[in-house]
User: Fold this.
Amino acid sequence: MASSIFNAPCTVPAVKAKTYFGLKPAVNNDLRFNVGKKTSIIGCPKRVFTVRASEKKDGPIKKLGLSDAECEAAVVAGNVPEAPPVPPRPAAPAGTPVVPSLPLSRRPRRNRKSPVMRASFQETSISPANFVYPLFIHEGEEDTPIGAMPGCYRLGWRHGLVEEVAKARDVGVNSIVLFPKVPDALKSSTGDEAYNDNGLVPRAIQLLKDKYPDLVIYTDVALDPYSSDGHDGIVREDGVIMNDETVYQLCKQAVSQARAGADVVSPSDMMDGRVGAIRKALDAEGFQHVSIMSYTAKYASSFYGPFREALESSPRFGDKKTYQMNPANYREALVEAHEDESEGADILLVKPGLPYLDIIRLLRDKSPLPIAAYQVSGEYSMIKAGGVLKMIDEERVMMESLMCLRRAGADIILTYFALQAARCLCGEKR
Assistant:
């Protein structure tokens, strides 16, 4: 609040009463300050100046016109200005029991008693720089809403994608990951469209890099969007997902994406040995600078449903349990992390995010590499649905969920809330 000075009656009582304000008056009611050879006398027969910071006044603040030396001399002479009275202690409600204070040497609530103190001691922070924005793209020109994911669209790669990236950059989100909705006619059992240099993803990467050279582009390395079977790998006639043959295809896909300008390739397939093979393939083609974010602990989760609707990539038969991890397993994540780290992964990712905070913390504690968390489509859609039904405060739950992922140890978070959360952090009105 602004400080203000106003006039108050100058009735000087006996010295012991101490009910005066401002500078302590001398016995003759005059204030005399001897400063070197100069003497200043301020007569105050009837009024003194009282300084009250709690009063709101319009216009400039009035001052006494004293120099610093005169103010110091007044204090040295014993004429010390008094502060406003200490406010009275708030009264407890009627009926509150009178009890002695607990003999506590530590009261943690002391560090939580005001917004400023809570902010001072906050252990975890979050910013738009921590977000990677997953974006769905398709060959069409119109942006098509995704029914199971309110607020998300299949973006036309020529226009809608560029516009969405511009919105994200405006609020500090400069990292995206692309997921393509591939025409059924281009899908095959071996997913050859995945490494077509003129395919949807390479074209989108080139377009974005031409427009925004400093944009960080992550890509998805897996066959499921390109497979007529909807699996992350090549399917043998008996239903077995072929590992090494799939890895061969993934290497070609990663090189194609790097050639288009991808900054980080992200194998999400969960085939054994694919990180090391992709690293060798990239290096052999001169892409030593391209990073690998490995989906290290990707669980066979039920939280992926809305994503598969977005890309129309559900498995044609069976499930993905022979290559994705069992949700009941904890130690197995260490096995996957050790292998990916030794094969040359630059970032380790845990998917899903919120239901697997223990896995995020496990990898954070055991690995020096950056840890990523994917807040998947099911997590996003549940928060959105709860907000629409007024069962929860969508914005608060959104921000709390992202903070929890950071607290668990995630350095970056792949989240469909990236744009909305960044706007919230920037204080932008929606």
Observations:
- The two ends are 30 Å apart (CA to CA).
- The chain has twelve helices and 16 strands.
- Confidence is low (pLDDT under 50) at residues 1-49.
